[in-house]
Design brief:
Helix content: 40-55%
Radius of gyration: 18 Å
Strand order of the largest sheet: 3-2-1-4-5-6
Number of strands: 6
Structural class: alpha/beta
Order of helices and strands: EHHHHHEHEHHEHEEH
CATH superfamily of the largest domain: HAD superfamily/HAD-like
Largest sheet: 6 strands, parallel
Number of domains: 2
Strand content: 5-15%
Length: 221
Amino acid sequence: MLSANKASLLFDIDNTLVDRDAAFNAYIQNFISRNQAAFSGEDMSLLQAEMIALDCHGRKDRKLFCQELLQRFPRLPYTAESLWEDHMSLPDFVKPDSVLSEMLERLSLDYQLMIISNGSAHVQRRKLQSAGLTDYFEHIFISAEVGYAKPDTRLFSHALSYAYHASVVMIGDDYINDMQPAMAMQLKTVFVSPENETVAVRPDRVLSGIHDLEEALACMI
């Protein structure tokens, strides 16, 4: 039985538990090297930056991202569907973080750990596997499987029906998708914001990185 003075923790995946931006950057470097003929005449120093901008930290709909990439680079030998299939190799570029794994191991002794994430179930679960994180979480709720996507509070409500504790903390990097609905539902909030993003209503804690979570929780719970 979990300690009564602890909490249930809801984690986002991308750029919270997993350095999704680093994985995407590595994927794009590989993608460019495999499709150099499609980029002849392009300024290679700007090419990757442009693709990263199109990606919007993964928050843009993936079908729209694929369509925009093909419109910008029409010599790419893909359809929108085959480009999405290529993009599904992104989890292969996720790197494990031993410091994070050790922290989650400690937290799992006192907290209930769960995941609440948007995205493709296949891709998101593979990211967790590549990062070596799957086994730390009692439940993993992904929008494609549940049928609701953040910021829809129904996805949060679904996860909360599995929570052991009245005290629940949402940990994520997206103010609109993670923080706003969690605050609306009166959950405690930890905003992972390396750039200390200016927001309308400040969450309970703002962290520069996930590695600071353990200390923050000690002050919150």
